[in-house]
Design goal:
There is one protein chain. This protein is mainly alpha-helical. The chain is 67% helix and 2% strand. The protein has 19 helices and three strands. Helix 1 packs parallel to helix 7 and helix 10 packs antiparallel against helix 11. 46% of the residues are buried.
């Protein structure tokens, strides 16, 4: 098959890494509302067009289906069906806009998977994709480190309207910016986290974790690049990502039957523990505004008794994550048929309806497409994990991403959903 749109995958890998910062600056320049929504849809249009072109080019060619294909189709069909069922039948309260947002969110890895499946990359193309991922990650790391130390928090506050006015995400504690933009120890002094072009320490950390498994350490430039990415990952101050890196390295050790990745995993845990514990000693500092201090005091009163120690199980962020995971699991178990699309996570928050479950990929899917839908997604994920382990570095990256899904909406980061699932589809 000739003229395959492999270029579209390159564009998505690069473009999705730059998407948030470009959209926020367009908003700041005055491109807002429907106009910015149309511009922001470039990624969806490109993915659908590339997938359609692949299907057209493959017509008439032999295609051997796999269990992963059928599970992906089953999950996609469930998403579409739950999007068509009236919300009143399921007990949900999502708006029509919320249903469309959720359908795009849930179907993104499905579309990326079949794009990768249909591209049928050659070894040279696969190597080129890996180089693009590494280059993008190195760029994101450098930009993030420079930004954290050289760009003031006040400058970013002027772009906060993109989150609130454009995306509908109402944040209270940092003049409209996401609260996780900084690390807060409970006083007026706060510490910047590396957010880079994603404008999010979490999304940035997920890219860095994924890319670290792509770096060939045997190359002359391998170790310098790996250390750069790991350094940037530390400055995101994202403990779940650091733990996921360790889990991925252990998977790599088992799949390769080598002790070296396990030693790297132990080193990651030790360095991460020391770094996170002493972050306030060397991290770039910033301060709350007077209005933000008032809001912070109100927030502190709502969460009494929590610790500011990042290594404590009672730390405020950790407590919130555990509570969210527990509440989401309870919602799925007590309402196993699901509430319908648009009733969980960021989608529900953006459309201002009750959030039935948040953060964990699996509980969010369970709330939206029912327990059966979540189990189908899990079965599909395990089938892809088995397929990706044929290339141990990719299997380790996929395992790390699945682990992150326990605590966060990992498919809600388009770069991860497209890059990782497209390469998983290629491996299938």
């Amino acid at each position: 098959m000739k003229a395959r749109p492999v270029w579209a995958l390159y564009v998505l890998i690069v473009g999705l890494a730059l998407h948030n910062v470009v959209m926020s600056q367009l908003w700041r320049a005055g491109v807002r509302g429907t106009a910015l929504t149309v511009v922001a849809a470039w990624k969806d249009v490109l993915l659908v067009a590339a997938l359609g072109l692949v299907i057209w080019l493959r017509r008439g060619l032999p295609f051997k289906s796999t269990p992963g294909d059928w599970l992906a189709l089953a999950f996609g069909v469930l998403v579409v069906l739950y999007g068509l069922v009236p919300q009143s039948w399921l007990g949900g309260g999502a708006t029509h806009r919320g249903v469309l947002y959720a359908a795009r969110h849930d179907l993104l890895p499905v579309g990326a998977y079949f794009l990768g499946r249909g591209l049928d990359l050659t070894e040279a193309e696969r190597a080129r994709v890996c180089r693009v991922v590494i280059t993008v990650a190195a760029f994101v790391a450098v930009v993030g480190l420079v930004d954290a130390y050289a760009v003031s928090l006040g400058w970013w506050r002027q772009s906060a309207g993109w989150f609130g006015d454009q995306l509908g995400l109402r944040y209270r504690g940092l003049s409209g910016l996401p609260e996780n933009f900084v690390y807060n120890q409970g006083n007026n002094v706060i510490f910047r986290r590396l957010t880079s072009t994603f404008l999010s320490p979490l999304a940035t950390s997920y890219l860095l974790v994924t890319a670290l498994f792509f770096v060939p350490l045997r190359r002359r430039w391998g170790w310098p690049v790996a250390l750069l990415l790991f350094d940037a990952l530390l400055f995101t101050h994202t403990r779940s990502a650091l733990l996921a890196l360790g889990v991925g390295l252990l998977v790599l050790a088992v799949s390769r039957r080598s002790a070296r990745p396990a030693l790297y995993a132990a080193a990651v845990v030790v360095v991460a523990l020391v770094f996170v514990k002493g972050y306030d000693q060397f991290a770039p500092r910033a301060h709350f505004t007077r209005a933000e201090v008032v809001v912070q005091k109100q927030i502190a009163q709502q969460h009494p008794g929590t610790s500011n120690d990042p290594t404590s199980a009672n730390e405020s962020s950790t407590s919130e994550h555990l509570a969210s995971l527990r509440d989401g699991a309870d919602a799925v178990l007590h309402h196993p048929w699901g509430y319908g699309l648009g009733n969980s996570g960021v989608t529900a928050a953006r459309t201002h309806v009750e959030v039935k479950a948040g953060e964990s990929t699996y509980t969010e899917l369970g709330v939206e497409v029912g327990l059966v839908g979540a189990l189908v997604f899990l079965a599909w994920s395990l089938a892809l994990l088995r397929a990706t382990l044929r290339r141990p570095w990719l299997g380790a990256a996929f395992a790390a991403v699945l682990f992150l899904g326990l605590q966060t909406d990992v498919i809600g980061v388009p770069w991860v959903a497209v890059t990782v699932w497209a390469l998983a589809g290629d491996s299938a």
